[in-house]
Specification:
Order of helices and strands: HHHHHEHEHHEHHEEEEHE
Shape: elongated
Number of helices: 11
InterPro entries: Lambda_DNA-bd_dom_sf
CATH architecture of the largest domain: 2-Layer Sandwich
Helix content: 25-40%
Radius of gyration: 29 Å
Protein name: Transcriptional regulator
Number of domains: 2
CATH superfamily of the largest domain: Endonuclease Chain A
Number of strands: 8
Largest sheet: 8 strands, mixed
Length: 249
């Protein structure tokens, strides 16, 4: 039999309780409490009750308990956070779309910085031709939310003009089987750039252009994690978007 001077015994004394008091509170025999006080391990529900009764943590009362199982850390999906989009290395975007084996999704208002990169439309076209599904959702140039965003950024009709310019840059994809471009008119909380399980998410900050807002580089590790939330958002916007018109040469 162990000494009645273990952590549980000390915890009960510090709470002003003896074996009889604790037994009455827990509805057990005082001899059972005495056995716990001299080292016998209570069942889990009794351990929880004793922890509440004494105010001590379970691992302080029973130091030999195995460590509590930690929940999956969803934050492990975050590979890196850039302070603003212009801080993302310029080759990151090309490497992202080049890595895709199954699907590429873009959700933005204009994504002009991609359309003006000579390599990006070419890579997207080649990916579509090799069986990768390419979907690009741009803001509807005359949509109410595009107009509002332009006003918020202080560029007025400049946002609509950027979208039309981007559409010219993405012209090679307009009639490419396996690639689709649609217009959406939603309040865009984030721009999303997806290649299979990896995402670059450009957050939006009121009154500031996307290039000046943070970017999260994410990689999916679980079915219900951060990436899943953004992909669900993309699908909702995509399902309500309409096909973009062809761009004349």
């Amino acid at each position: 039999m162990g000494s009645v001077n273990g952590p549980l015994a000390r915890a009960l004394r510090s709470a002003g309780l003896d074996a009889i008091d604790a037994a009455a509170r827990l509805g057990v025999d005082p001899k059972t409490v005495q056995r716990w006080m001299t080292g016998r391990m209570p069942y889990p529900r009794r351990r929880d009750a004793l922890a509440r009764l004494t105010g001590w943590a379970s691992h302080d009362l029973w130091p030999d308990l195995p460590p509590a199982k930690q929940p999956a850390r969803i934050a492990d999906e975050v590979l890196i956070i850039y302070p603003h989009r212009s801080a993302v290395p310029t080759d990151t975007w090309a490497r992202l779309v080049s890595s895709a084996k199954r699907e590429i999704d873009v959700l933005a208002y204009s994504a002009l910085f991609l359309a003006e990169d000579a390599s990006i439309p070419h890579i997207l076209r080649q990916k579509a031709r090799t069986g990768v599904r390419v979907r690009i959702a741009l803001g509807q140039p005359d949509g109410q939310n595009v107009v509002r965003r332009g006003n918020e950024e202080g560029i007025g009709d400049g946002m609509s003009a950027r979208i039309r310019t981007a559409l010219v840059g993405f012209r090679p994809l307009i009639d490419e089987p396996g690639a689709w471009i649609r217009f959406h008119d939603t309040v865009l909380y984030n721009s999303i750039f997806r290649a299979d399980e990896e995402l670059l998410v450009n957050t939006h900050v009121y009154g500031r252009p996307g290039a000046h807002a943070p970017v999260l580089h994410l990689k999916a590790l679980r079915m219900d994690g951060i990436v899943a939330s953004y992909l669900d958002s993309f699908e909702r916007v995509w399902s309500a978007a309409r096909a973009a018109p062809s761009v004349p040469d």
